[in-house]
Amino acid sequence: MEEQTNVQVIGYQPMYKAYFKSLNIEWIEQYFKVEPHDLEQLDDPEGYILSKGGQIFFALYKGEVVGTVALIKNTESDYELAKMGVTTRYRGIGAGKALCAKAIEAAQEAGATQLWLESSRQLTPALRMYSQLGFVEVSMGETPYSRADIKMEIQFVKA
To answer: What CA–CA distance (Å, rounded) separates 127 from 49?
Structure first.
């Protein structure tokens, strides 16, 4: 059911702020529980992500917001792919892949040498997609999330 060509990815707009939280709460509660660090980011995306040089993208399908992802800037060259969710009804149409590809592109354009994410081995379709887009598993390290049991990253080579 992949219809990625009909999925449009746009940058953050304040009118879509509520979707950033609701789409993430939806998938987190489906598989896990919402944690304090989730709410830090979801309650204040402008302060926690955008004001620090990060970006947030939304996937639109037939004019409806169906997914979102954040690109969090940690340092000039280190970025995190985070808070990616697609509403249950529209999983499988390519929205997640389109969002992830846009975040990878934006990280490269921003000068990242490393883009990483933390996830859960329970989320098999997401992990498969990350691998298809070039992410490889690396050592886990510390995490603020009890659900995270895998870390993946892409290293970008500077031209």
So the answer is: 23
